[in-house]
TrEMBL record:
Pathway membership: Amino-acid biosynthesis; L-cysteine biosynthesis; L-cysteine from L-serine: step 1/2
Protein name, as recorded: Serine acetyltransferase
Keywords from the named record: Acyltransferase, Amino-acid biosynthesis, Cysteine biosynthesis, Transferase
Lineage, highest ranks first: Bacteria, Bacillati, Bacillota, Bacilli, Bacillales
Pfam families: Hexapep
PANTHER family in the cross-refs: SERINE ACETYLTRANSFERASE
Record-listed E.C. numbers: 2.3.1.30
Reactions listed under catalytic activity: L-serine + acetyl-CoA = O-acetyl-L-serine + CoA
Amino acid sequence: MFRQMRIDIETVLDNDPAARSKFEVIFTYSGLHAIWAHRVAHMLYKRKWYTLSRMVSQVSRFFTGIEIHPGARIGNRLFIDHGMGVVIGETCEIGDNVVIYQGVTLGGTGKERGKRHPTIGNNVVIGSGSKVLGSFTVGDNVNIGSNAVVLRPVPSNSTVVGNPGRVVKRNGERVGDRLDHTQLPDPVIEMLRDMQRQIDDLKSELRAERALRRSSNNHELIPEGEPTL
């Protein structure tokens, strides 16, 4: 147990440049506190002490702002940065070396029973405000952009952005849109921009056609043989 706690502290120090010391991490990082509380709640959950496990998770939620269902299975070296508003569902499975930022939801899409929450692979980064909803798998080495809404499986070594989430990079190759290393594109915005360009082109054609018609009408009003000024 103490070895695992030491790994958790080192994970925070490795992922957060603002963390200055182990003492600071132990006493001030709510994401770390939520993970430790979840381990206790999960142990109770596996022993079928469901109500007590939920009580532990709710106390943790009250103090940290992070809600992790006791049934969720979490791997090693999970880092929850800031964490306020993070929700992790009952049948969610999270691999190793995963980073989750504030406002992330790993949830379901309805009242179905059984496996209804996502399975997150290893070395995944989930950006602020992202929602991963449904029973499917997000592969290894995946980056999910901030505020993305992911509703379908994501292959390994991919980058996902937008609402609904779309893969824009796979195995190091760009898919569709051009990527910038500092800013992820939104395919929906790109589509809207393309539609706006088409509308502008149509407006230009209509203006040119109207101008041509006015010119033709003015020419017809001038009698033949009369000089024009």
